Amino acid sequence: MPYAASLCRSIRQEASVSIGRIVAALDGACVRRFTTGQVILDDINWTVRSGEHWALLGANGAGKTSVLRLIGALMHPTTGTVEVLGHRLGKVDVRELRAHIGLVSSAQRVPQDLTGHAVVLTGHTGTVQPLWRKYDADVRERAHTLLAELDIKELADRPYGVCSGGQRARILIARALMADPSLLLLDEPFNALDLPSREDLIDTMRQLAEGRRELATITVTHHLEELSPAIGHALLLRDGRVLAGGGADEVLTAARMTECFGRPIEVSRHGGRWLARSGTAG
After folding, report:
1. CA 268 from chain center: how many Å?
2. For the residues 68-90, what does the mean pLDDT come to?
3. Residues whose CB is less than 8 angstroms from the CB of residue 59 and which lie 6 or more positions away in sequence, other chains included
4. Which residue range is the domain that position 129 belongs to?
5. pLDDT by residue (tens digit) across 213-233?
6. CA 107, 168, 229 angle in degrees (round to 5)?
7. Please, are residues 211 and 149 in contact by the beta-carbon 8 Å criterion?
8. Is pLDDT of 1 > 70?
9. Measured in Å, how far apart are the chain's first and last C-alpha atoms?
10. Residue 40, domain CATH
């Protein structure tokens, strides 16, 4: 069996895991800038299991994007190890591995004239532009099914460029789900969304967690208000180090958020939703 096909089968088998199996693990992961020696991440230890939904928080420059890039197989650690879907970075073809990881980012390049359905189809090939000959009837129908699952089937024929920010975010999530990933990474998906669009996307994430019990998600954000009620775990970063990690109730406290962001912060929770605001010192 050719190596690529064998690896693809191995990744798919590992991705088809039951709830509670490890989907990503960082062990002493460090990242240093090659040219200057600057420490970007220092001794990161973190395990994500299937069915878990994590929030990744920290101030600007704390290392959130770098951690997400490690787990997304977009970069390698300088030292330490990173394993994703049962495969260690440095010992696996990362191109094959990336095909089984869903990634959603507001910075993704998407041709503005593509329809919502066409954008979702590109998730099957992992390309910016559609490769039409690669999409048979089953693949095209799956794209329609995902649009319906995310309650945006009316966007199938609408150009991406005229969709609202919230609609674009849900189209990109549908695109990421084309690979049927067991790990979905969301890099500030709420960026620049207005209040109604933010709330629609939060509800989408809640429904996704309820409907796909084995799916693990990691959401990078600056704001607790953007976390869906499905978020059960949180990791706080400060200056490239893990400040705290574990159950959201134990991590997202006023004391730890204050330490993380370097100013007094009050934290409350109502109806499964979090709220943070600047407090007063003393």
Report:
1. 24
2. 94
3. 222, 238, 260, 261, 262
4. 110-180
5. 999 999 999 889 999 999 999
6. 95
7. yes
8. no
9. 66
10. 3.40.50.300
CA angle 164, 166, 170 (to 5 degrees): 115
124: phi then psi, degrees, rounded to nearest 5: -70, -35
In this structure, the chain runs to a length of 282
* Residue in this structure with the two tokens 């893990």, named with its chain if needed: 242
CA–chain centroid gap for 187, Å, is: 6
Contact at 8 Å (CB) between 179 and 20?
A: no
Taking only the tens place, the pLDDT of each residue in 245-282 is 999 999 999 999 999 999 999 999 988 899 999 876 54
Quick one: 52 and 190 in the same domain? yes
- Closest by Cα among 26, 48, 23, 41 to 231: 48
User: What pLDDT is recorded for position 10?
Assistant: 53
Q: Provide the CA 87 distance to its chain's centre, in angstroms.
A: 18
Residues 6+ apart with CB under 8 A from 133: none
Residues 195 and 91 in one domain: yes
Type of residue numbered 271: G
Both tokens assigned to 263: 């100013």
Please give the pLDDT value at position 99.
Answer: 85
